[in-house]
């Protein structure tokens, strides 16, 4: 989730922006506890804001789900009704899409949003705009700015009026007529009127993209748009490459779940006798990758789901403690739970048993006040500690658990006042120990 805040109201202030927790605005217990404890962050303020600043919320599953690869590839659609300005990629936390585990695009230009993103699958008579439209969570930072939200709301409103006037469901309106109106009022560029779907990317473009993998983030996105077709090309390129290029191809292959470059990655990870500089969780002002170079390789090893990668990953786990960077813990957790082998349970148990690694559940407002008030309105410590604990416990549980510690931690988080933490723990516990997510 992107970071959440709740602002103070200071008389005369021209700008207020906060990010100090993760809040489920549909969970009234979570909302209540946030309003109570966050007052301690700005005791001298005139008042407290009345709207929780969630940057990411529930989304529908629409007729199309916009994703980060669509955006980086500047995909066009026949039914574009919003053109968001994109801008800097301000994620307010870490990202999860496999493409973003390899590279950071830095930002994006114009983002085309199709009408189908507003149409829920299987439901008639409903349009959903704003932060609720159908988009992958890693696409949201590039379509959530105020002007883009307003333009989306306007497009949905006009579409609803057209449907009502014609006596048809929203999905049956004349989208070309809607686009023409949006061009007329200045919300869309004229070129949209003749846009078709620019996917699938041609084989020629894919061949050219494979040649530039690793050196050009846009070309890497082209590869991720057609992974099954790109995989054999990547395998051939890896076999022919040398040095740094060979490692780049191995990394992309592994992120796509292909172990053809496993030996290359293992050599690079085993050569590193210590962790590199990691990322220690940041919400406000988070630009750039949330994984170090070594983190990326460890995650990639896990995504191959090849058990031959276990010794290298576990060797890096042995170096971790509460003082280690957040990204290193996350990388190990992601890699081990992807492989899902019982051999990882004792090392994960030992890591979680180290000082300060557990006990970060917020079950009362008093705990939230004690731990969450400090650090101001852009604090990160409580999220960092809790997500680290929850991620490692999830990995332990999905690998089969050891002495019930993974389940114990997850069950403790069922009572966390932060709704997202509690719901995530419940989702993991819905499966038995040793059942990994497919």
* Coarse structural class: mainly alpha
Measured as a percent range, the helix fraction is: 40-55%
Termini, distance in Å? Answer: 21 Å
Q: Roughly how many Å is the radius of gyration? A: 23 Å
DSSP summary: helix tally: 17
Total beta strands: 8
Task: Give the rounded overall mean pLDDT.
Answer: 95
Largest sheet: 2 strands, antiparallel
Which ranges are low-confidence, i.e. pLDDT below 50, for 5 or more consecutive residues?
none
What global shape is seen? globular
Oligomer: single chain
Strand percent estimate: under 5%
The strand line-up of the biggest sheet is: 1-4
Task: Please trace the helix and strand order, writing H or E for each element.
Answer: EEHEEHEEEEHHHHHHHHHHHHHHH
Per-chain topology:
Elements: E1 4-5, E2 8-9, H1 28-37, E3 47-48, E4 53-54, H2 68-72, E5 80-84, E6 87-88, E7 107-108, E8 111-114, H3 146-166, H4 175-184, H5 203-211, H6 217-225, H7 227-240, H8 243-255, H9 262-271, H10 293-303, H11 310-317, H12 326-339, H13 345-352, H14 365-372, H15 381-398, H16 405-413, H17 419-429
Helix pairs in contact: 1-14, 5-6, 5-7, 7-8, 8-9, 8-10, 9-10, 10-12, 11-12, 12-15, 13-15, 15-16, 16-17
